[in-house]
Amino acid sequence: MPLSPELEALIRRILSAPSLARAEALLTELRLQIQHGLEARHAQEQEAAALVLEQSLRDLGYEVGAISHTLFSEGGVVHFQRPGWEDYHIRMRLSPGEKTLNFNVVRPRGMEESEQRKRLDFVAEERWCSEFPRLMQTLAARGIEFKVLRQLDAGELPVQAVEPASLPARQEEERFTEKPLQKSLKP
């Protein structure tokens, strides 16, 4: 990668410094400028990754809000869902320190617990488990790769019930035409 004109000029000043002390001071300035340049480049890469993730989810038919450009540096939580999923969302948590992504099906807390709810929870998890490989392939094709450390089958753990306020607000206008959660299941 070619050096910027500013860095080239600073290097020339270091090489022609009248004293060792002045050369060392200029070398410290060079290190600082290189560090700032690397940090700016890293921030641009993270912003690009957030945009790729957001657009990939949309291209796969998920509804997702804007993903913060700081997600890959600070971590955080993103919720997304497909039309027709009603109250079920996928929660994606990113931990930059551990370099992990965690996906799980969630629904609002306070919904009546019943056998019907357990069946709907299972259908939501089963649906996500079947769609997850396609998301991984899409992200890998677009330069965001990650290893699956643990993948549970539908029903292995209960669907996580979360505070309703932590989920994206539902659209006032019902735009969904297909209702995949309405299919009948054998007991």
Order of helices and strands: HHEHEEEHE
Please summarize the sheet with the most strands: 5 strands, mixed
Rg for CA atoms: 24 Å
Report the end-to-end length measured between terminal Cα atoms: 63 Å
Pairing-aware structural class of the strands and helices? alpha+beta
Strand content: 5-15%
Mean pLDDT: 85
Number of helices: 4
pLDDT below 50 for ≥5 consecutive residues: which ranges? 172-178
Question: Order of strands across the widest beta sheet?
Answer: 1-2-3-4-5
Q: What's the number of extended β-strand segments?
A: 5
Instruction: Report helical residue fraction.
Output: 40-55%
Shape annotation: elongated
Describe the structure.
The protein contains four helices and five strands; from the N terminus they run H-H-E-H-E-E-E-H-E. Helix 1 packs antiparallel against helix 2 (20-59). It is elongated and about 85 Å long. Strands 1-2-3-4-5 form a five-stranded mixed beta sheet. With 187 residues, it is of the alpha+beta class. 44% of the residues lie in helices and 14% in strands.
List keywords for this structure.
5 strands; 44% helix; 187 residues
Short description:
The chain is of the alpha+beta class and 187 residues long.
Write the layout of secondary structure elements.
Blueprint lengths: L4 H11 L4 H40 L3 E2 L6 H4 L1 E6 L7 E7 L4 E9 L6 H27 L18 E3 L25
Parallel strand pairs: 4-5
Antiparallel strand pairs: 1-2, 2-3, 3-4
Helix pairs in contact: 1-2
